[in-house]
Amino acid sequence: MTDPEALPEHPATPPSGARRKTAVIVLAVLAAFALIALGARHFAGSAQKGGGRPSAAVNVAKAEQGDMPVTISALGTVQPVVTATVRTQLAGTLFKLFFQDGQMVRQGQVLAQIDPRPYQLALAQAKANLARDAAQLSAAQVDLGRYQTLLKQDSIASQQVDTQHATVRQLTGTVAADRAAIGSAQLNLEYTSVKAPVTGRTGIRQVDIGNYLTPSDTNGIVVVTQLDPIDVTFSLPQNQLTAIGHAAGSGAGLPVEAHDQDAATLIATGKFLTFDNQVDTATGTVKAKARFDNAGNALFPSQFVNVSMLVQTLHGVVTVPVGAVRHGAPGDFVFVLQPDRTVKLAVVKTGPSTKDRIAILSGLSLGQTVVTEGADGLEDGSSVRLPGDHGGSGGKPGGGKPGGWKHGKHGHHGAGSGTAGGE
């Protein structure tokens, strides 16, 4: 056995290779800490300089002065001025039809023919009655003349003359009734030709040749709708009645536009016609009607359209692109570009707008530059970069063309080409 007292008092010294490996590890750890400290110092400097984030790339535009139309939009329904159900005015068998389904017809055009023979005979009979009664009247008048002569000669009683007077008057009334009967028979004969009450388009016919028709038929023969002019009905909020009423009362007439369901295509233009005489208490709206010339039949009955009505025009107001206005806790606001390439949050009061621009009624001055794109994440005092800054995409700083800083997508490196700088 080995004697414990023979062991050395201290452990053996590690070899020189192990010492070098330990030194390398220590130096690597120290270098890593140094890099971390350097990065933290650079980030702190950047945060102190740029508000805690790098400068945002934005596009801007100037507030301009211009005219802003005030319009009201609503969903409307096309409604014909006249929708007439054509019915026969007397009973009879349908002989002929003189129209095709969906045909354009003129007012007074014959559409159908009822069997006229019974009414022709009734007219002939009325004329015969008139001829008979007229002959009797003529004879009675001759007798009256004779009786009056005899009365002067005191050869006849006056009572007989008075009776003959009454007979003449009675026959005169009978002849008048006969003439009225002839007029009624002629009218009935005309009614056998069923005519279009208005100029318009026919629908699908409801009867066939040979059907026995009466004035009480619910469906009638056909429905004719007047297409030119044509109306569009729509509903408006009751709080707009005063403004529209004043404008409509000026005599100029409010212009109204009808667009398709996507509000992308203009179909027709017309004039505001009238309001209904009461407000719908359930919805707080009132029905309104506009009239359109429809010579080309662009508007079709019962079609849904988007109605846009010009109420007035604001002249000389401050306007900015629609994308410049933001919505948040302060309300409506914009970011105004400052000379030091920072932005200032300005609360504004907005007015009417179009597809591209919106009126600013207060909170912004003419000529100020506002951010139109890239405002997501901006705060009051944030620094920004404009197209062309630091030798970027070459756009003009402060240019007002929407989407201009994205021009780099077509020839460079997207948004980075217009915002790259030395930061």
Please identify the top-level CATH class of the largest domain: Mainly Beta
CATH topology of the largest domain: OB fold (Dihydrolipoamide Acetyltransferase, E2P)
What is the name of the CATH superfamily of the largest domain?
A: RNA polymerase II/Efflux pump adaptor protein, barrel-sandwich hybrid domain
User: What is the correct CATH architecture of the largest domain?
Assistant: Beta Barrel
- Note the gap between the termini: 75 Å
Strand order of the largest sheet: 3-12-15-14-13-16
Number of domains: 3
**How many DSSP H or I helices?**
5
Mean pLDDT across all amino acids: 81
**From N to C, what is the helix and strand string?**
HEEEEEEEHHEEEEEHEEEEEEEEEEEH
Query: Approximately how much beta-strand content do the residues carry?
Result: 25-35%
Level of helix content?
25-40%
Biggest sheet details:
6 strands, antiparallel, barrel
Which ranges are low-confidence, i.e. pLDDT below 50, for 5 or more consecutive residues? 1-8, 42-51, 391-423
The rounded Rg comes to 48 Å
Q: Quick one: overall form?
A: elongated
Which class of secondary structure composition applies to the elements?
alpha+beta
Counted beta strands: 23
